[in-house]
Amino acid sequence: MAWVDFVRFRVSPSRVGSLMSARSEAIEAFRSRRSLRAAYLVELERCEWLDVMVWDGDQAGTESCQTGADLAEVARYIDLMAEVLGEERGILIEGDTLGA
Prior knowledge:
Blueprint: E1 2-10, H1 16-33, E2 36-43, E3 48-56, H2 60-67, H3 72-79, E4 83-91
Antiparallel strand pairs: 1-3, 1-4, 2-3
Helix pairs in contact: 1-3
């Protein structure tokens, strides 16, 4: 089983470079301490972004959301978000890698 976390947020255009750097560090921190399978960052319209993370295991998604902010790298990433517009978590039912 895998969990998928979605976070939709806004970021100031002047902070996008810092956000991208901080996200890379956060992803590495998650990979070293948790069961992160994949991570995607989607730029939407009106300075809005969607962060999607896929976690392995029965508790991985729940654990990551509850304890992720305790990692300094993740806290820096979150601090760069001007406004969190929504968060969702669900169980991945079907996944496929195109071209595999």
